[in-house]
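testing teh design pipeline on a random one, pls ignore if ur not involved
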C-alpha cells in the first residue's frame, strides 16, 4: 500500500502568494524616474550665455550708455520740367508742368551719394568735424583724419535716401549729433542738388542748339564762298551780268540780220533797174559786206561761229560759268535761310523747356533726438544672436550624430 500524502495547512501557503508581485495593468503609464542635469546640458546653457546673453548685454550697454543721441532732418524734393508752348500752338502760350524723365531723377539720386557732393558739402561745413564731435563713440562717429573715400562711406550711413521710381520723389533723412548740424547739412544738399539740376538744364539747352548752330555756321561759310566766287568772276570778266549782255548782243545781232536782209533786197532791186557800172551797186555791195562782217563779229563774241571771244573765252562759256556760280549762290542762300530758321526754332524750344528742383518738404529743424533706436537695435542683436546660436547648435548635433 502506498503511503498517504501529508496534508498542507492553509496558513502555510499564504506567504508564498503574498510575496508574488501583481502584474502591471495593461494600458496604464509606467512610472517615470526623475532625471538629472548632464554635462551636455550645461554646455548648451554655457553656449547660450556666450553666444546670446553676453552679446546682447554688450550691445545694450553700448547703446544705452555710450552711443550719443542723433538728430534727423528730413527733406523731400523732385525734379520737375516746365514746357511752355508757343502762342500759335496753344492759343495764348499756356504753361504746362510735367514730371521730368526718370533719367533726371536717377542722375540726382546718384549725385547725392557721389564723392563730388560730399566734397562740396565738406568744403562748406567741414563734415569731419561735425561727425567726430562725441569724445568716445567708435561705432557711430568718424575719425577726423579719415580719407575722402572713408568719408563717402560714412556719408552713405548718415544720409538715408528713399527714392520712389514710380512718382520720382526723393526723400532724405540727414543724421547728425547736433540739431543745427543736421539742418545745415540737409540745406547744403538741397542747394547743391539745385545747382546740379540747373547745370543739367543748361547742358540740355546747349545740346539742343549745338547741332543747329553747327549747321548754321556751315551754311554761312558756304554762302560766303559762293559770294566771293561770283565777285571774282565779275572782277575777272568785267561783266556784271553776262545774261544781260547776251540779250543786248542778241538784239544787236537780230538788228544787223534785219539790216542785212534789207540791204540785200535793195541791192538786188538796183541791179535789176540800173546799169552794171552804176555807183549805187558798188555802194550797196560795200554796205552788205560791212553788215556781214559785223554779224560775224557778233556771232564770234557769242560763240556761235568759230573762234573764241575775249581772253580766249566766248560768251557762251562765260554765261555757263555765271549760271553755275549763280546756282551755287542761290542754293547757299536757301541753305542759310533754312539753317537760320532751324537755329531760331531750336533756341526757342530750348528756352521753353527747363528743369528745376521742386522741394515738397523741409529741410526740417529737428527738436528731439530719434536715433539711434536703442530698443530696436538691441532686439535685433538678440534675434540674430539666437538665430546664429540655434544654427550652430543644430550643425553641432548633426555632425555628432553621424560619428
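output:
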Amino acid at each position: 500500500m502506498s503511503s498517504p500524502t501529508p496534508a498542507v495547512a492553509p496558513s502555510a501557503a499564504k506567504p508564498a502568494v503574498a510575496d508574488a508581485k501583481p502584474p502591471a495593468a495593461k494600458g496604464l503609464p509606467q512610472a517615470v524616474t526623475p532625471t538629472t542635469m548632464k554635462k551636455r546640458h550645461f554646455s548648451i546653457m554655457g553656449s547660450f550665455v556666450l553666444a546670446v546673453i553676453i552679446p546682447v548685454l554688450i550691445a545694450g550697454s553700448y547703446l544705452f550708455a555710450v552711443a550719443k543721441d542723433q538728430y534727423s532732418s528730413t527733406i523731400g524734393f523732385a525734379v520737375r520740367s516746365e514746357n511752355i508752348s508757343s502762342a500759335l500752338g496753344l492759343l495764348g502760350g499756356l504753361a504746362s508742368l510735367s514730371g521730368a524723365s526718370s533719367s533726371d531723377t536717377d542722375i540726382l539720386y546718384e549725385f547725392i551719394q557721389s564723392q563730388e557732393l560730399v566734397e562740396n558739402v565738406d568744403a562748406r561745413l567741414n563734415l569731419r568735424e561735425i561727425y567726430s564731435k562725441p569724445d568716445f563713440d567708435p561705432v557711430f562717429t568718424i575719425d577726423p583724419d579719415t580719407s575722402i573715400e572713408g568719408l563717402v562711406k560714412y556719408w552713405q550711413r548718415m544720409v538715408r535716401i528713399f527714392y520712389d521710381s514710380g512718382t520720382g520723389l526723393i526723400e532724405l533723412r540727414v543724421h547728425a549729433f547736433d540739431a543745427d548740424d543736421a539742418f545745415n547739412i540737409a540745406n547744403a544738399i538741397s542747394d547743391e542738388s539745385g545747382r546740379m539740376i540747373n547745370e543739367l538744364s543748361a547742358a540740355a539747352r546747349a545740346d539742343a542748339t549745338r547741332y543747329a548752330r553747327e549747321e548754321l555756321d556751315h551754311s554761312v561759310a558756304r554762302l560766303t564762298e559762293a559770294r566771293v566766287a561770283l565777285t571774282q568772276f565779275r572782277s575777272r570778266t568785267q561783266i556784271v551780268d553776262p545774261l544781260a549782255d547776251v540779250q543786248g548782243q542778241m538784239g544787236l545781232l537780230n538788228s544787223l540780220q534785219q539790216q542785212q536782209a534789207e540791204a540785200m533786197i535793195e541791192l538786188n532791186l538796183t541791179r535789176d533797174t540800173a546799169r552794171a557800172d552804176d555807183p549805187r551797186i558798188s555802194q550797196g555791195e560795200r554796205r552788205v559786206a560791212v553788215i556781214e562782217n559785223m554779224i560775224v563779229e557778233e556771232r564770234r563774241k557769242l560763240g556761235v561761229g568759230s573762234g573764241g571771244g575775249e581772253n580766249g573765252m566766248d560768251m557762251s562759256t562765260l554765261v555757263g560759268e555765271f549760271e553755275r556760280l549763280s546756282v551755287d549762290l542761290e542754293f547757299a542762300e536757301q541753305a542759310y535761310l533754312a539753317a537760320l530758321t532751324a537755329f531760331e526754332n531750336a533756341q526757342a524750344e530750348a528756352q521753353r523747356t527747363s528743369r528745376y528742383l521742386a522741394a515738397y518738404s523741409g529741410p526740417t529743424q529737428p527738436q528731439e533726438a530719434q536715433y539711434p533706436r536703442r530698443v530696436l537695435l538691441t532686439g535685433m542683436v538678440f534675434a540674430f544672436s539666437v538665430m546664429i546660436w540655434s544654427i550652430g547648435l543644430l550643425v553641432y548635433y548633426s555632425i555628432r550624430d553621424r560619428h
